[in-house]
Structure formats: structure tokens, C-alpha cells
Amino acid sequence: GENVEQHPSTLSVQEGDSAVIKCTYSDSASNYFPWYKQELGKRPQLIIDIRSNVGEKKDQRIAVTLNKTAKHFSLHITETQPEDSAVYFCAASISDYKLSFGAGTTVTVRA
Amino acid sequence: SQTIHQWPATLVQPVGSPLSLECTVEGTSNPNLYWYRQAAGRGLQLLFYSVGIGQISSEVPQNLSASRPQDRQFILSSKKLLLSDSGFYLCAWNSGTFTQYFGPGTRLTVL
């Protein structure tokens, strides 16, 4: 089945700096790649997603890039703020409308 | 708009006791429904998913079971809880796309 690897597992950045999280997937049939943000004790919330026919997507301070040839995709957060502190999960689509999730990255933004 | 509910929000149960968690979705028809478990500080483990009434697929063999008695109702059950069943249980839905939306979750502690 699909295997999604996510790195790093923890990331600490100074407020105002950028944060980058990288994921790799194994199934070349995967064509949908969402990113979720989970604050402590809350549900995961979709923050951005990308489909395989697009190489990059941006929404304000958040962007996602996809390299289908290399089977990796990345989340970029610019001008980080304290409220960006959370756990971020990447995922890749697999059969029957299922998603395979990465293990998560805990992002801490230092004031 | 669509809304997903889960109850109870928190639950403390003794080892060996039964379990019933409920999830309902409003504002959509024939959704795909999912149960995930998240152990403390860990990622999302898919337990069950359902593409229709009475149709349940199990991802991980264990002492849990799921049922879908109505189109927009998904129930997670156990006859005898184990300590290892403690965690944050999340229900999710999607309809016609890969994008999954999570419910608020149930935090289960087995003592």
C-alpha cells in the first residue's frame, strides 16, 4: 500500500522565518495531496491541497509544491507567526477515496 | 453546508467494558465515512471506512468494530476495551472527492 514519509518530525523556527515540511510517497497512482493542521486537542483542519496536474499552489503565506517525477511534495509557510505553531500532516490519495497520512511534524514558532 | 458531529467528546472507561462512539453527518447524502485513531503524540491510523449503508471495510484487525445503520451515521464499537484502545478517535467524511473533513473527535481513556 501507499507509504508516506514526512520530515522533519519537529521543527522550531523564529517568528518571521520560513518553515518547510517535506513528504515523499510511493504510489505513482496518487493524484491528490492535502495538508492538515492540528492544534493541540483539536481536529485536523485542511489548510491547502494540490492535485497532480498542478506543480504549485499558494494561499497567502502557505504554499505547496509537487514533484511527481520524484514523488515528493512540500509545504512552505512564510513569515511564520505564533499561531502557526501546531502539528502538520501531509497525505496522499490511495484507492477507494482513502488517504495515507504522514506521521506529522510538530512546528514551534519562537517569539 | 455540511456538518459532522461526534459524541461523546470525552470518555473514561474501565478495561473490559464496552464502547460505543457515534458520528453523524448533516447536509450531504451517501458520504464516505471513516474512523481514525490517534494515539497521544502520534499520527492518524485508519481503522474503518464505509462507502454506503451496511458496507464496512476494516483496515486494522483488532477488538473494534464499526457499523453504518443509516446513510449519515457511523458507529464504532467494542465489546471489551483494552488499555491500548486509549486515544483520540476521529470520524471523517467525504463525498465525491478525496478531501476528507474531520469531526471534533472523542478522547477515550481506558483505565
Summed up, what is this model?
With 111 residues, chain A is mainly beta.
Summary tags:
heterodimer; A: 111 residues; mainly beta; 6-stranded mixed sheet; 5-stranded antiparallel sheet; 0% helix; globular; B: 111 residues; 7-stranded mixed sheet; 4-stranded antiparallel sheet; 11 strands
Provide the fold topology.
The complex is a heterodimer of chains A (111) and B (111).
Chain A: E1 5-7, E2 10-14, E3 19-24, E4 32-38, E5 45-51, E6 56-59, E7 62-67, E8 72-77, E9 86-94, E10 98-101, E11 105-110
Parallel strand pairs in A: 2-11
Antiparallel strand pairs in A: 1-3, 3-8, 4-5, 4-9, 6-7, 7-8, 9-10, 9-11
Chain B: E1 3-7, E2 10-13, E3 19-26, E4 32-38, E5 45-52, E6 55-58, E7 64-70, E8 73-78, E9 87-94, E10 101-102, E11 106-110
Parallel strand pairs in B: 2-11
Antiparallel strand pairs in B: 1-3, 3-8, 4-5, 4-9, 5-6, 7-8, 9-10, 9-11
What helical percentage do the residues of chain A reach? under 10%
Order of helices and strands of chain B: EEEEEEEEEEE
Order of helices and strands of chain A: EEEEEEEEEEE
Oligomer: heterodimer
User: Structural class of chain A, please?
Assistant: mainly beta
Sheet/helix structural class of chain B: mainly beta
Largest sheet of chain B: 7 strands, mixed
- Estimated share of beta-strand residues of chain A: over 45%
Could you tell me the number of beta strands of chain A?
Answer: 11
Q: Major beta sheet of chain A, specifics?
A: 6 strands, mixed
**How many extended strands of chain B?**
11
